[in-house]
Amino acid sequence: MPEPRTVLLTGAAGGVGTRMRELLPPYGYRLRLLDQRPIEDEPDAIVADLSDTAALREAVRGVDAIIHLAGISLEAPFEKILRSNIEGTYHLYEAAREAGVGRVVFASSNHAVGYTPRPADGSGAVPVETKHRPDTFYGLSKTFGEDLASLYWDRHGIESVCVRIGSCFPQPRNVRELSVWLSEADCARLLHACLTAPKVGHTVVYGSSANTRLWWDLGSARALGYDPQDDSEQYAAELVAEFGELDLDNPEHRYLGGRFTYDPPIWPY
Ligand code: NAI
Ligand code: 15L
Q1: Is pLDDT at 184 greater than 70 in this prediction?
Q2: Most buried of the four, 126, 132, 170, 208, by CB within 10 Å?
Q3: Taking each helix axis from N to C terminus, what angle separates 137-156 and 88-99, rounded to the nearest 10 degrees?
Q4: Is 9 near ligand 1, meaning CB less than 6 Å away?
Q5: From the alpha carbon of 73, which atom of ligand 2 is closest?
Q6: 207 close to ligand 1 (CB < 6 Angstrom)
Q7: CA–CA separation, 55 vs 44, rounded Å?
Q8: How far away, in angstroms, is 100 Cα from ligand 2 center?
Q9: CB atoms within 10 A of CB 80
Q10: Which residues line ligand 2 (CB under 6 A)?
Q11: Is the CB–ligand 1 distance for residue 67 below 6 Å?
């Protein structure tokens, strides 16, 4: 596949999308933006809901690849998750199929496997093949997205990389995030690798930086050419002083999904 130049970025108004709008163009991408919310200073951005199949067909026309970030990013009632994340992702893959788009990078989440016990010290990293153990309806929608990507590869030859993002924020906010943090710069590096790796078929990767306290295996991401440059350890002393070390008796630290396994943050809209 030639290096993609024009890439549809869904969810472009969101936290990750906003940073990727700044960080991806220097890699050589021309981004077409889509979100249900308008974006300040981006008059050409497509303002559309993922249920608007006509708008999606128009949005994917002529693009080389899609980065699919749009969707509810926290827990919500099942009906809302169904509409935005499950049906919405299906509509986007259908539009991609009709337009012959060759590759999709799907923002999955650690919450697809959120009930996986986090590795105790010395027990090794969680493999990407670990079974789906969603911790919320939100996490369930990400398992659906991963399997939808698998179906569209096997049946229609559309390649996908499903990125189980850990916590992509400017810096880790608690001791759990020391293990799962994805710096914004590494996020751009990873997305670039997902877009340019010669053959990906249906690939699942974890999305995090090269954290000293990493809980999972970055092997499948590195195999795409991802070479993370950041490590959350620089924030460790301050966070451990504030919150204490990881503690398996603390429910927030027992499973990969942290708080989502017992008191998930709720989507506010
Ligand atoms: P966000 O909530 O800041 O952004 C999501 C964007 O999607 C919003 O701008 C929203 O308007 C848009 N959106 C939601 N439903 C839509 C619909 N039906 N039609 C069109 N647009 C819609 O989320 P964030 O943090 O930027 O995450 C981006 C993606 O990465 C999400 O899919 C999220 O689930 C995933 N992810 C993010 C992580 C993180 O640490 N930020 C961790 C794991 C996964
Ligand atoms: C996610 O999937 C959420 O979208 C994000 O807001 C964070 O909560 C992240 O997981 C996390 O696990 O920290």
Answers
A1: yes
A2: 208
A3: 20
A4: no
A5: 4
A6: no
A7: 13
A8: 31
A9: 15
A10: 73-74, 109-111, 167
A11: no
Which pLDDT value is given to residue 121?
Answer: 62
Q: Is the pLDDT of residue 83 over 90?
A: yes
User: CB atoms < 10 A from the CB of 90, how many?
Assistant: 16
Residue 250 DSSP SS3: coil
Q: Which domains are present in the chain? A: 6-261 (3.40.50.720)
Cβ pair 72, 51 in contact under 8 A? no
**139 Cα nearest atom in ligand 2:** 2
User: What's the 3-state SS for 193-244?
Assistant: HHHHCCCCCEEEEEECCCCCCCCECCHHHHCCCCCCCCCHHHHHHHHHHHHC
CB 145 near ligand 1, within 6 Å: no
C-beta atoms surrounding 2 within 10 Å: 7
C-alpha 111 – ligand 2 centre gap (Å): 8
- For 88, the enclosing helix (H) or strand (E) is helix 88-99
Closest ligand to residue 118's CA: 2
Distance, in Å, from the CA atom of 225 to the CA atom of 221, rounded to the nearest integer, reads 7
The residues annotated with a catalytic role in the active site are 138
What is the model's pTM? Answer: 0.98
State the burial class of residue 267 (Cβ atoms within 10 Å of its Cβ: 0-12, 13-18, 19+).
middle
d(CA 136, CA 75): 6
What tokens does 216 get? 């999972």
**Is pLDDT at 200 greater than 90 in this prediction?**
yes
Neighbours of 255 (CB within 10 A): 22
What single string gives the DSSP state of each residue in 157-207? --EEEEEEE-B-SSS--SHHHHHHB--HHHHHHHHHHHHHSS--SEEEEEE
User: 222 CB contacts (<8 Å, ≥6 apart)?
Assistant: none
Residue nearest to atom 7 of ligand 2 (CA): 167
